[in-house]
Design goal:
It is a single chain. The chain is an alpha/beta fold. Helices cover 38% and strands 22% of the residues. The protein has 22 helices and 18 strands. The chain has a 7-stranded mixed beta sheet, sandwiched between helices. Strands 6-5-4-9-8-7 form a 6-stranded antiparallel beta sheet, covered by helices on one side. The protein is globular. It starts with a helix and ends with a helix.
Length: 561
């Protein structure tokens, strides 16, 4: 029996795949000339994290996620980044007996073991980690070193030789001189370093005596680097050239875009400038356009919530709304819905500002104000394209709201977003946009309010009994054990790593339809929705606190928002 068939049998035994799928996976992997495991990962039949425990048991190795390891960075110098990334390993530590612990992502890579033994003559021990986490860790270390080197060179180099005293690009220099210029290398490393740090935005901010670089990670801005303002003109020019902006224009805001391939993935960087008293501030939004792997479980939907969502997205027509503040993941959730219902028998068309992810089989169009391509004008054209399902990036005005609602009552399933504080607020918001209440009641399928809360770092969160104040906040009569943030090297001493969503789902049944037609009071709508089983944002987040996923501080922040 070959290794693929043996591994598939083991996965079936561990209930990671079904017995009936074994032969198809083997046949498809053979046809595509790849391993069965790589095929399953590519087709998202499983993830490296979900298979970690079973695969470690198969290889007879202990397993752990790389963030849980206390890695001695000084050992990195023993090996090259290229070698570690090619063979998927990271040296972790050396114990008192001289045994080096190695985190490996490819346990059966004999050439890697040979290479490691050549570089280190002592005894070796191994722990199994997901290979993708090895790549991410190596990329982060490499990017940090690259940024530090570029900053040191920038403080001593004379950037005027390339960009001139006014930051104007000079084109007479050779390409290698441009690539090796400290300003160019610093900008490139700042952008590339943001990827392994999981940053959603990069802020480059000039002040009187310093220019600051900050990354937005898990919703919070974190300082990354500082450099003298004397070098800022060259850096500003470099970003503008990359983003296709006018480098001579400094008095008006500009927008641009950078496309880069980092770690084999295509990223889209949306660049925005804002003139300030000390120079132009840059904000760079990071979007991974090459793939979209989110599922509802990844986005924090519970089993009970999924039951309601299933009823909403499988309706033949009507409008489903996502609400919440900017940056709470509304569009990501809509994409996950579209990915689920995407089928060759359906014509799905979207209008977005901008297109954040590309979805195969979905017709995606983008707003272009200069060409008079607004949400409303695009929506009119889409209705002439024989659509089954329409996704509107955002309902911003009365005209778009009216067209969207009328599309929903004429046989189309419409998805869109609104900016409201809660789910019932979307109903009154539509009526404020001059949509008649009877049309709202007729067309609305449901509303999902969403917020993002930070996950406690699994490496350092600390469990303890609730205090009297915490019991009062959580509505408890007796003390229970909850988790609290601490801070360690893996979460940058924040106590949190990653975010998850909490939801408030309002499903419009017949009783709700009657109430919408009769009464516009959002409080009455909220009471009726709760009677019909709606779980509020507060209660959803409270459940995460009780389960040790997030902290009571995040629960309190949610109530302030």
């Amino acid at each position: 029996m070959n290794i693929d068939a043996e591994l598939l049998q083991y996965y079936t035994y561990k209930r990671l795949i079904k017995k009936k799928d074994e032969e198809q996976i083997l046949a498809e992997s053979k046809r595509l000339n790849t391993t069965a495991r790589d095929y399953m990962l590519t087709k998202e039949i499983m993830t490296e994290t979900s298979e970690l425990e079973a695969l470690a048991e198969y290889y007879c190795l202990p397993c752990i996620e790389i963030d849980m390891l206390d890695i001695d960075d000084s050992l990195i110098d023993l090996f090259s980044f290229e070698l570690m990334k090619k063979h998927k390993f990271v040296p972790v530590s050396i114990d008192k007996k001289g045994v080096m612990l190695i985190a490996v992502g490819k346990p059966l890579d004999c050439s890697a073991l040979s290479m490691i033994s050549t570089c280190y003559l002592g005894a070796l021990d191994f722990v199994f980690v997901p290979a993708i986490q090895v790549d991410r860790y190596i990329d982060s270390i490499s990017a940090v070193l690259s940024t530090s080197t570029a900053l040191n060179d920038l403080n001593t180099a004379k950037d005027e030789q390339l960009f001139g005293l006014k930051g104007e690009a000079i084109s007479v220099y050779k390409e290698d001189e441009v690539i090796n210029n400290p300003s160019v290398r610093l900008v490139d490393s700042i952008i590339k370093e943001a990827i392994p740090y999981r940053a959603s935005d990069i802020h480059i901010e000039p002040f009187e005596k310093v220019v600051k670089v900050r990354y937005r990670i898990d919703g919070d801005l974190q300082n990354r680097a500082e450099f003298p303002p004397e070098n800022y003109s060259a850096i500003s020019a470099r970003i503008k050239i990359m983003a296709g902006m006018n480098i001579a224009e400094r008095r008006a805001p500009q927008d641009g875009r950078i496309n880069m391939i980092i770690g084999g993935k295509e990223y889209d960087f949306r660049v925005s400038t804002l003139p300030t008293i000390y120079g132009e501030k840059f904000v760079i939004r990071i979007l991974d356009k090459s793939s979209f792997h989110f599922t509802r479980s990844d986005l924090g939907f519970t089993d009970a919530e999924n039951t309601v969502v299933d009823k909403m997205i499988n309706r033949p027509h009507g409008i489903v709304l996502l609400t919440g503040p900017t940056g709470c993941g509304k569009t990501t959730t809509l994409y996950s819905f579209l990915k689920e219902i995407n089928h060759p028998t359906k014509n799905i068309v979207t209008v977005e500002d901008p297109v954040e992810y590309t979805l195969g089989g979905v017709n995606q169009t983008q707003v272009n104000v200069l060409a008079n391509m607004t949400f409303a004008t695009a929506l009119r054209s889409i209705l002439r394209q024989d659509p089954d399902i329409i996704m509107i990036g955002e309902i911003r005005d009365d005209e778009t709201a009216s067209i969207a609602v009328r599309a929903a009552i004429t046989g189309h399933l419409v998805f869109s977003t609104l900016h409201t504080n809660d789910a019932p607020g979307a109903i009154t918001r539509l009526e404020d946009m001059n949509v008649p209440d009877y049309l709202v009641a007729d067309s609305l399928v449901g509303v999902i309010a969403q917020r993002l809360v930070k996950r406690l770092c699994p490496a350092c969160k600390k469990r303890g009994k609730t205090t009297p104040k915490e019991m009062e906040i959580l509505g408890l009569n007796e003390p229970i054990t909850i988790s609290r943030p601490q801070g360690c090297q893996f979460c940058n001493n924040t106590g949190y790593k990653g975010r998850t969503a909490v939801h408030e789902i309002l499903y419009v049944n017949e009783k709700m339809q009657g109430e919408i037609s009769r009464d516009k009071n959002s409080e009455k709508l909220r009471e009726l929705a709760r009677e019909n089983g709606m779980i509020t944002l507060w209660d959803s987040c409270r459940a995460l606190v009780l389960n040790g996923v997030t902290s009571i501080q995040e629960l309190m922040r949610l109530s302030i928002d």
